[in-house]
Amino acid sequence: MEVDMECPIAPPWLELPPEITTTILQKLGPIEILKNADKVCTAWSRLCHEPAIWRVIKMQNAGADFGDREDDLERMCRQAVDRSWGQVIEISLEYFGSDNLLNYIAERSAQLKRLRLVCSYNVSSEGLSAAVKEFPLLEELHLYYISITKEAIETIGRSCRALKSFKLNNQICRHPYIEYDEEAIAIAQNMPELHHLQLFGNKMTNEGLEALLNGCPHLESLDLRQCLNVHLVGNVGNRCFQQIKHLRHPQDTPSEDYGLDAEIHDFESFDEDYPSGVSDIDLISDADDYYEFSDASNYSDDDDEMFIES
């Protein structure tokens, strides 16, 4: 007696052309790929090891079921960098990252063009300075709530001569004794090719602004929101309006396009002898140690659009 044996039907995703599957995988993000997609089937696993999948690496610490949290994220980031085989061009890390991780990335990512660090509190000025020396092609460096020295800014400018877009964004602290132009002057003296600059919540004065206008003649967009010591009046104000195509004023509302906490913090109890050179970021206490892991960011990146050349 002949037995009619039905052949098992292949899952529909196996019928997809490789280029479509690759597009789908790229939309998942590194964490989802490494945790799940890589284990679906042999065909997907093979695609998950293709360097093209890892040209853009965006990872966020947004809380979940990992035991070691940041250690697990750093391990996965290293895996992602390894799989890129030196072809990664963009990396974005939110709420995690360290000097050791940056060093690992720097040793394996000579083609990197865009680096974004958000609340990477374990990244130091020294660690960032060492890493950027290995990124000669870097065009965009966007830093949120990361404390770096003017010496680090100088190193960034000297090492990344192709840098076109720079963001150094601080939490806003209104305090009458804090005026600090050193960061703006370091940018002006070492980043002459900048086209886009965002210094949200910076403590520079009109002196620092004038240095930027002199030292960065190619600036097209300048975001001065919540730079409370800057006053767009007189000669420096006129120069801003004439030289800058897209200007965000100090008093402009910190709208949703900024993405991070734009609340202004008053520190009325500070001693009058508080050093004038302190950075806003030095006034921030570490937030909760509890975060969640997620590929999807809770923070809008829309504000990046005005800083990316077409």
Explain what the structure shows.
α5 (99-106) runs parallel beside α6 and α6 (125-132) runs parallel beside α7. With 310 residues, the protein is of the alpha/beta class. The strands form 2 sheets. The protein has a 9-stranded mixed beta sheet with strand order 9-8-7-5-4-3-2-1-11, with helices on one face. A two-stranded parallel ribbon has the order 6-10. It has a domain at 146-283: Leucine-rich repeat, LRR (right-handed beta-alpha superhelix), CATH 3.80.10.10. Helix content is 30%, strand content 15%. The termini are far apart.
Primary descriptors:
310 residues; alpha/beta; Leucine-rich repeat, LRR (right-handed beta-alpha superhelix); nine-stranded mixed beta sheet; two-stranded parallel sheet; 10 helices; disordered N terminus; F-box/LRR-repeat protein 23; LRR_dom_sf; F-box_dom; LRR_FXL15/At3g58940/PEG3-like
What is the number of strand segments? Answer: 11
Given as residue ranges, the uncertain stretches (5+ residues, pLDDT < 50) are 1-7, 267-303, 305-310
Question: SS-based structural class?
Answer: alpha/beta
The biggest beta sheet reads:
9 strands, mixed
Treating each run of at least 4 consecutive H or I residues as one helix, how many helices? 10
Question: Can you name the CATH architecture of the domain at 146-283?
Answer: Alpha-Beta Horseshoe
- Kindly identify the CATH topology of the domain at 146-283: Leucine-rich repeat, LRR (right-handed beta-alpha superhelix)
Mean pLDDT: 80
- Supply the CATH class of the domain at 146-283: Alpha Beta
* Portion of residues within helices: 25-40%
Q: What is the strand arrangement across the widest sheet?
A: 9-8-7-5-4-3-2-1-11
Compute the separation of the termini in Å. 70 Å
- CATH superfamily of the domain at 146-283, called what? Ribonuclease Inhibitor
The ordered string of helix (H) and strand (E) elements is HHHEHEHEHEHEEHEHEHEEE
Radius of gyration of CA atoms, rounded to a whole number: 22 Å
> How would the global form be characterised?
elongated
Query: Strand percentage, roughly?
Result: 5-15%
